[in-house]
Amino acid sequence: MTAGPVPILAEGLTKTYGGFTAVDGIDLEVRRGEAFGVLGANGAGKSSTMRMIACVSPVTAGSLRILGRDSATDGAAIRARLGVVPQDDTIDGELTVRENLLIYGRYFGLSWKVLRERSARLLEFARLEDKAGDAVGTLSGGMRRRLTIARALINEPEIVLLDEPTTGLDPQARHLLWERLHRLKQDGVTLLLTTHYMDEAEQLCDRLVVMDAGRIVASGTPAELIARHTSREVLELKFAADERQVMIDKCRGLAERMEELPYRLLLYTDDGEETLAAVNARGVRPRTALIRRSTLEDVFLTLTGRSLVD
Amino acid sequence: MGTSAPAFRELGYWLFRYRRTWRGSIVISVANPLFFLTALGLGLGKLVDRDGALHGESYLRFILPGMLVAAVMQTAFLEAAGPVLQSVRQRGNYRAAAATPLSPEDILYGHLMFWALRAVQNAVLFTGVSVVFGAVDPARAPLLVPIALLVAVAFATPAAAWSVTVTRPSQISAVFRFAVLPLYMFSGTFFPVEQLPSWLRPLAWATPLWHGVDLGRAVALGTATPFRVLVHVGYLTAMAVAGLLVARRNYRRTLHV
Amino acid sequence: MTVTANPPVRPRHGRPWTMVERNLMIYRHTWPVILAEIFEPLLYLLAFGLGIGALVGHVPGLRGDVPYPEFVAPALLATAAMNGAMNETTFNLYAKLTTDRTYESILTTPMSVRSVALGEVSWALLRGTLVSTAFLAVVSAFGLVHTPAALLVVPSALLIGFTFASTGLLVVTFLRSWQDFQLIQLVMLPMFLFATTFFPLNVYPRPIQVFIEALPLYHGIELTRAAFLGTTSAHLAVAVAYLALLGTAALTWAVHRLERTLRD
């Protein structure tokens, strides 16, 4: 990628609402052309962070430079070079699909001539050519999200911010969206996204941070995070409800770490087979047992002590 | 027909909802006509009463029954049209009620009772204040309440029959603007129909609101004759019954598919 | 497809006009709404001008005696300008702020809150001009216009539209729910009825006259009525100043309050 100012550079970034601290002095550096993920449960401070980076919400304390400019003074100039895909699709319900792209482009001061050409290309990119003249009310969830993404690209942004891009979509729609985001990355666009989904983060992100209660609790590539914060394998056990507690007590001390979740018990270990054998040797009879590799979900659980989707 | 007990459950629903909005609705249904009454009856009345154009009757006493009846019509239309459209939508309360043992007729009758109660409430408040204003003879004022009730039912049933089939809210505002508002203004509410050009008068006499307004005015001013009362009451009753029959059919067709 | 390979088209900052473009694009689908807005004042003119006019005859106390229809027509134009502008910046704007959340996405672009506010007010003015011009044309066709000065009702309506669009914008920043619209009604309807729309100021006792003279709509009606009847007086300068000041102050405050709400 070509050299230039760091796309996003935050130091001690803080946001408070009244007495409540949503973002508590975080540092971030997003590099040009990478896909950067922000993980966290609801209320961890992801959306507040995104809104500050989008220059729609003023920074309470700390510094935030985007594309080399100060977000506090150059908001409009920065926004001119960003694409924003908000969590809820805020597409204009009174306009048709194509009109949404055209009018949104006008907000950037782009000429009608440029917009006609770009909207045609973006409709194709979003696979919405057949829907161009339709009211947006007739679109499916996946189509609405693709239109929102197409809309965010109308100004040919250098950075695209995506807040939970695939929440609420069916598996097919998610895969189509991921594929489109990969293409954007290949074209050199810097992506910053928040997500609930660990598989999405593993699929899309070069690097990521995990947020909890307004702070960053871990950062790195997905592989680094797994290596650093969790064991190689996980043994998942399920028990019958009546003997659950007895069985769990019997398992104590068999693994480096144990996590009790509703309906299942996770044992973190470097060798799942060996641990399962030890479990059986103690007379524990699980209804099902599963050995799998550790994922980001386990990293999250280790770091925050709770599962992500709650 | 006749009202079955389940209809009272539907009425209960509307009364329950009304607990949250009654303050605002009293403002709209009583304060608005009172503003009109003060501005037109007292203010404009000063200009009108100069030449005794109304055969010695003051303009205030002349427009009071008209304002009452027209306001009741407007409220009946608005409460029957918008809320019915809202209720009949997929997530509306008619759909929820139709999934219980309530029949479409029960839902209609229950809602109709609510409109009738609202009309009586408005009419009592409105005539009460008018008596204080000296705008109506206290002895004849109570007679305006059943007239208001009849007018409300005569307009609410056709409005409900139509609204239950409507798909877009803009249709309702169009009918309000292009049908209800002209009725409001040209049915003898603000000036005698005799002031209209001669070719327009028969049209005004044919409108249901004129029958309501003229009935109210004849009763309030003590000029009613049995024949006149019979014609007006007959017209409005026929309209109410016809509206109810069509509404029953449309409710059944829409809610039990 | 490449998204960034093209030579960059240098984006300029979004301007208020863009908001007008958005609304125009919507009106391509819903233009009959504007017809309804012209229809309503005409209906009042017919009912009051002709029906009640026959009872009233002439309105005394103005320069000579004025036939009643010519007395109410300019006032109805002023109230139409007021209602059109207020509806646009209260009802429609509140829907965009809460239900549709239209501005949320607009503000992620270089558009500023100020541009959005100015754009919405400009749009209200454009609509107002359309309605007042059409109303004037119809009224002329009825033969109620006797002076070329009547053309001045259009700029007068524009000023009224500005004052009330800005006031509406300010009011909307204070609303807590849809129920609050009834409070707006509670102010707007009496103003419509009492601010000399249907009868002259001299029907009131003096203390009430003072109160009426403080209403913005009263000044608006003074302007349109003077233009329509071709009269002039020193008071007109007061009316223009009052409306312009009120509008500017309301707009400035409204933009300040919107900044706080929309960029939290």
From TrEMBL, chain A:
Pfam families assigned to the protein according to its UniProt record, in alphabetical order: ABC_tran
Membrane-spanning ranges: none
MF GO annotations: ATP binding; ATP hydrolysis activity
Keywords: Antibiotic resistance, ATP-binding, Cell membrane, Membrane, Nucleotide-binding, Translocase, Transport
PROSITE patterns xrefs: ABC_TRANSPORTER_1, ABC_TRANSPORTER_2
Main location: membrane
Domain of life: Bacteria
Domain ABC transporter intervals: 8-238
SUPFAM superfamilies: P-loop containing nucleoside triphosphate hydrolases (SSF52540)
Membrane topology per record: Peripheral membrane protein
Compartments where found: Cell membrane
A GO biological-process term: response to antibiotic
Entry's Gene Ontology cellular component terms: plasma membrane
Entry similarity comment: Belongs to the ABC transporter superfamily.
Protein name (database record): ABC transporter
Organism of derivation: Actinoallomurus iriomotensis
Origin organism lineage: Bacteria, Bacillati, Actinomycetota, Actinomycetes, Streptosporangiales
TrEMBL record, chain B:
Keyword Lipid metabolism: no
Gene Ontology molecular functions: ABC-type transporter activity
InterPro entries, A to Z: ABC2_TM, ABC2_TM_bact-type, ABC_2_transport, Nod_factor_ABC_transporter
Transmembrane segments: 21-42, 62-85, 112-135, 141-162, 174-193, 229-247
Domain ABC transmembrane type-2 positions: 24-254
Organism domain of life: Bacteria
Membrane topology recorded in Swiss-Prot or TrEMBL: Multi-pass membrane protein
Gene Ontology CC entries for this record: ATP-binding cassette (ABC) transporter complex
Pfam families: ABC2_membrane
GO biological process terms held by the UniProt record: response to antibiotic
Key words, A-Z: Antibiotic resistance, Cell membrane, Membrane, Transmembrane, Transmembrane helix, Transport
Subcellular location: Cell membrane; Membrane
Family membership: Belongs to the ABC-2 integral membrane protein family.
Name of the featured protein: Transport permease protein
Organism annotation: Actinoallomurus iriomotensis
UniProtKB/TrEMBL annotation, chain C:
Family: Belongs to the ABC-2 integral membrane protein family.
A GO molecular-function descriptor: ABC-type transporter activity
Record field: transmembrane: 42-62, 124-144, 150-171, 183-201, 234-255
Subcellular location as annotated: Cell membrane; Membrane
ABC transmembrane type-2 domain ranges (all copies): 32-261
Lineage start: Bacteria, Bacillati, Actinomycetota, Actinomycetes, Streptosporangiales
Name of the protein this chain belongs to: Transport permease protein
Membrane-topology descriptor: Multi-pass membrane protein
Keyword line: Antibiotic resistance, Cell membrane, Membrane, Transmembrane, Transmembrane helix, Transport
